[in-house]
Amino acid sequence: MTFRDASSLGSAGTIRRILVANRGEIARRVFATARSLGIETVAVHSDADAHLPFVREADAAVLLPGDSPAETYLRTDLVLEAARRTGADAIHPGYGFLSENADFARQVIEAGLTWVGPAPESIVSMGSKIESKKLMAAAGVPVLPDHTVDTATEADLPLLVKASAGGGGRGMRVVRTLADLPGEIAAARAEAESAFGDGTVFVEPYLARSRHVEVQVVGDRFGEVAVFGERDCSLQRRHQKVVEEAPAPDIDATVVAAMHEAARNAARAIDYLGAGTVEFLYDPDRERFFFLEMNTRLQVEHPVTEAVFDVDLVELQFAVAEGRSSAEVVAGATTSALNPRGHAIEVRLYAEDPAHDWQPQSGTLTSFEIPGLVSFERSTRAGVRVDSGFETGSEVSTHYDAMLAKVIAWAPTRGEAARMLAGALRRAQLHGVVTNRDMLVAALTDEDFLSGAVGTDFFDRRAAVLDAGTGEPDATTLFAAAVLRAEHLAARRRVQTRIPVGWCNVVAQPQRTTFRLRGQEHVVEWTGGRNGYAPASSDEQVEVLQAAPGHVVLRVDGISTRFDGVVTDDHVHVDSALGSVSLRVVPRFVDPADQVAEGSLLAPMPGSVISVSAAVGDEVTEGQTILVMEAMKMQHTVVAPYAGTITELAVRAGQQVASADVLAVVEPAEGEQP
To answer: Total structural domains in the chain?
Structure first.
C-alpha cells in the first residue's frame, strides 16, 4: 500500500550530496552520518559562524549574505540558491530554523530536490498547537481541556498560557490567580508575536508535578510507523529541556505501552514520514498522560534513543527519504530496534549562569576539552559521546541559542550512566564563558534524581542544585592559580630571565595576587625565589612539587593534586579534582576610565534594548523593571537592585549595547545599601 503520493514528497532516489540548512552541532551531527554513508556534504553559514568547525568540515561551504546573522539561516531563497550552486541533490533541515517550515519543504520539493523530512501537509497539521489538539482528540489521543478568561474558575488553577506556534518556552506563562489571567495572556501574545510572528495563544491546566515524556517515531512511504521507545525530558529550566534520558524511569509498563500506541496513532493520523517525536505530559499521581505537541523533525535529545536502540536515526531519515522502508535499516542494527538495552542520559551544556536566572553568556572559549569521548557516534559498549558545534578558541556569539554541546552517556544501568556522565563533566576543561556544568553534575548526583523522582518541578524542589559551584573557592586552588600566573608571566618575560620567579629584595613582604570571582575579591599571599613557591601563611603543610606555565602539582598534608591551568592576560582558569574555576585577575592599578559610578546597572552581555520602563528622575523600588534586553534568543529583565532614584539612563529602545555597557544608574534611597 502506498503511504502517500510520492510526488508530494520530493524526488526519491540515492542521495549523492546533502546540504544541511542549519548550523553548529546540528550540521555536524547530520554530516557525521552522511560521511559514514559516502554522501558529500554542503554547509551554509552566516558571517558570524565562519570560524566554527561545521564550516571547515563540510566538503563545500557557502556564505549566506545578510546584515542580521540571526535571520541569515531563515532566508529560503539563499539556501536554495546555495544548493543549486553546489550541486546538492537533497536538503536536510536539521532541527531548528527551517525544519518545521512547510513552505520551505514545498520549495525544496518544487526545485526537484529530495527533502529529508515529512511531507509539508504533515508539518502544517502540527504547526498549530490548537488545531493539532483537535486532530489528536479525533484520533483518540488523550488531550488536556482548553480554558478561556470567561470559562476558567478558581478550581481550574493553576493554568498555563501557551503560544500556538513555536516552542522553547517562549510565549508561555503560568497563572496562579484568575485576576492575572488577562494580563498574562496579553504578555504571552506579545512574546509569541515577537518570537514566531503569530500571537495566537491558548490556555490549559498547568500540572505542576507533571513529567515531560516523549515517544520517538519513524514513518516510511509504505505506511509503517516504527516506535523507538520513550524519553523522559522532565528536567527543564524556563520550559526548556536540560537533562533527557531513555527509557523513562519509573513508569508502569502498561502506561508506557499506551503511550507508544497513542504516538503511533498520532503519526498515522497525519500520514507521517521520517523521524518525529510525539510529546506527552504525564501525571504520575493519576498515571495518566496527555498530548502536548508533535515535533515534525528530529529532536535535540535523539542520541539517547540511538544509544539504547543501537540505531542511527539520521541514517533512517536518509533511508526513508530515498524511498526505502525503515525496516531495511533497522534489520541491519546489531540490536533489535524493538528491544532497548541499558540506559542513556543526555545533558545540554549551556553557556549560561543557573545561579543568576539562567543568564546566557557569550565570549571566547578559552578551553573546551572533554577528554576521552567519541563525537557523534553511537557505541555498542558503555561510554560517553559528545555532540558539539564548538572547540577551543570558538566564539560564542549572542546571535544564537546558548547551547555549547550535548554530552551523552550509555551504560547497562541508569545509576552507572549518571555516574559516568557526571565524571566526564567534572573532568572537562570548560573556560572562557560561564557554563551550567556544575549544576548538571549536581543534578546527576542528586538523591532525588538518582531515585527516579524526576519532574518538571525538579529545580523548584531541589533549588540548591542551582547554586552548585557558587561557593567560596578552595584556598589551595587559589594558591595554585597564583603560581600558574607567576609561571606564565615568567615564561613571557624577555629581560632578567635568570632572576627567580617571585623574587623581591624585601623578604619580609610576600607577593600579593588578587583575583575576583562572582564579585568577590580573594587575595593570595605567597613567596617565591630560589627555594621555590610557598603560601605566605597556611594551616596546612603545602609543598610545590612541580610548577610550569600549564600545570602545578601541590602536596597538601601528604596528598598530591595536579592543577591544570590556562592563563590569559586577565584570567587564570584552573582545573583539578577539587573543581574548576575561572578567576579574573585584579590589576594592581585601575585606569580611571574603566571605573563606573556607584549604582551603575551594566549590560550582562551584548544585545539590544527591547523596551525601557523608567526615566531619569523616577523613584523606583527594589526589583522594579528598568528595561528589557534581548540576547541569545531570550529576553532579560534589568531591575533596580534597591530602592532609589534613577539619575542616569543611557539607552533607548532598539539600541544595541555591548557587554558591561552602563545602562542606567540608580542612586540608593536613604538607608539602602548599594
So the answer is: 5
Closest CA to 377 of 303, 276, 301, 300: 303
- Is the separation of the CB atoms in 467 and 459 below 8 Å? no
Distance CA(91)–CA(31), nearest Å, equals 12
Site of grid cell 548538571: 440
Same domain membership, residue 571 and residue 621: no
CA dist 20 → 77, 83, 96, 115, 297 (Å): 14, 9, 11, 11, 13
Provide φ and ψ at 567, rounded to 5°: -115, 130
Take residue 304 and report the three cell numbers written for it: 539517547
Reading the block at residue 272, the C-alpha cell is 507521517
Secondary structure of residue 580 in the 3-state scheme: strand
Pick the closest to residue 172 from 156, 164, 161 (CA basis).
Answer: 161
Q: Judge residue 539's burial from the number of C-beta atoms within 10 Å of its C-beta, 0-12 exposed, 13-18 middle, 19 or more buried.
A: exposed
C-alpha grid cell, residue 660:
558591561
- Report the candidate in 132, 120, 454, 131 with the shortest Cα–Cα distance to residue 279: 132
Show the CA angle centred on residue 196, arms to residues 194 and 201, nearest 5°. Answer: 90
- Whether residues 191 and 262 share a domain: the answer is no
Q: Count other C-beta atoms under 10 Å from residue 140's C-beta.
A: 11
Same domain for 81 and 160: no
- CATH number reported for the structural domain that contains residue 181 in this entry: 3.30.1490.20
Domain encompassing residue 248: 211-467
Alpha helices in 447-560 (DSSP H): 447-451, 458-461, 475-492
**Is position 502 within any domain?**
yes
- Please state, as a whole number, how many other Cβ atoms lie within 10 Å of the Cβ of residue 190: 13
The CA dihedral of 364, 369, 373, 374, to the nearest 10 degrees, is 40
Chunked mean pLDDT (size 10), the chain, 674 residues: 42 88 96 97 96 97 89 95 98 94 97 97 92 94 91 89 78 89 89 82 88 96 92 92 97 96 96 96 94 95 95 95 83 55 96 87 92 67 89 91 94 96 95 95 97 94 91 93 94 77 71 90 89 84 93 95 94 94 87 67 83 91 89 77 90 85 89 66
C-alpha grid cell, residue 269: 493520523
Model confidence pTM above 0.90: no
What does the block give as the cell for 468? 552548585
d(CA 278, CA 291): 8
Length of the chain: 674
Q: Is the peptide bond before 247 cis (omega within 30 degrees of 0)?
A: yes
Distance CA 592, CA 277 (A): 56
